[in-house]
Amino acid sequence: MENSIPDNFRSPPCSGNLTSGKLTGKGQIKIALAIGNSRLHWGLFAGPTLEKTWDTEHLNADAVSRISEEEKAEYLVQTVMRSIEEIFAQNLLCLPATPAFSSPHTLSLVPLPLVLASVVPQQTAIWQSYPDVRIITLDQLPIRGLYPTLGIDRALAVLGAGNQFGWPILLIDAGTALTFTGADVNRYLVGGAILPGLGLQLSSLGKKTAGLPLISLPENLPHRWAKDTAGAIQSGVVHATVAGVRDFIEDWRCLFPDSKIALTGGDRTLLLKYLTAAFPQTASSALIDAPEAIFWGISLLSVDC
Q1: Which CATH superfamily is domain 140-296 in?
Q2: C-beta separation of 75 from 64 below 8 A
């Protein structure tokens, strides 16, 4: 589901604070936006420190295209601030005690610098209208051997995980797509693989076949030899995927016995749960939960806008 523009949206008069309200130095506030295939992933930085992460839906590209460039810029600023205010209101975020951030109300006056990494061109095009945006590209990353079509999300996540846990590193991203990305001790890309994620496999069977139901992922590792259609789908998707993940992990360990292996992505917790139940020895040997890997990667870049 995408976020639509409210029917009553009107661009407010520009305030002087829109260009002069940014903080500087160690307390500078920046927003990182990682646009994934299914959602917008947000990270709020105070200086180099990642204070909070959260997710929202994609923006409705058709609705945004119908407003002027000036209104679009104001709408995007409001979208960022509204998202932060919602986190602030839930007492999930403590902002620095500065005049510009003395209350949630003042947030609407401050256009925060936005650092953008996206794998969805249509969403990227929208956010290019944000008044203070920097788009991260592969050539800015301190990893060698990257190929031109490598997803910026994979590259940033493996960079962040490698810096956090050491090199070599294998980063498994259990998102809409399930990806494997590995780099060696010299920060050189070894390679990787891509397959449909757990949820995408289930939705594909439900939408692209005539007689199979649309079902959800089970909470626990399903019984392998199912006696009903829903159970058979869950068994096939989960067991085949987990077996494939184990195979990639074991092959990577043959290449790099001392390497750390990190898990990120929205389905990482379920994937690890399945892997632990099916292959406990594989799961128990140094798999690391790394939900913020992409933001660790972003933090390593110079993000002064």
Answers
A1: ATPase, nucleotide binding domain (3.30.420.40)
A2: yes
Separation CA 188–CA 167 (nearest Å): 10
Candidates 3.40.630, 3.30.70, 3.30.420, 3.10.590; CATH matching 17-135: 3.30.420
> What's the confidence (pLDDT) of residue 295?
98
Split the chain (305 residues) into runs of 10 and give each run's mean pLDDT: 49 34 53 95 92 94 91 92 84 52 51 94 95 96 98 98 98 98 98 98 97 97 98 98 98 96 97 97 90 97 55
| The pLDDT of residue 102 | 47
Rg (CA), the chain: 21
Q: Please, what sign has the CA dihedral across residues 73, 81, 40, 214? A: negative
> What one-character-per-residue DSSP string does 41-103 give?
EEEEEETTEEEEEEEEEPB-HHHHHTS-HHHHHHHHHHHHHHHHHHHHHTT------SGGGSS
Q: What is the pLDDT of residue 109?
A: 54
Domain map (residue ranges) of the chain = 17-135, 140-296
- So which residues are the catalytic ones? 153
Q: Are strands 133-135 and 114-118 parallel, antiparallel or unpaired?
A: parallel
State how far the Cα of 173 lies from the Cα of 290, in Å rounded to an integer: 9
Residue 141 contacts by C-beta under 8 Å, 6 or more apart in sequence? Answer: 155, 156, 159, 297, 301
Predicted TM-score (pTM) of the model is: 0.85
Beta bridge partners of 34: 41, 117
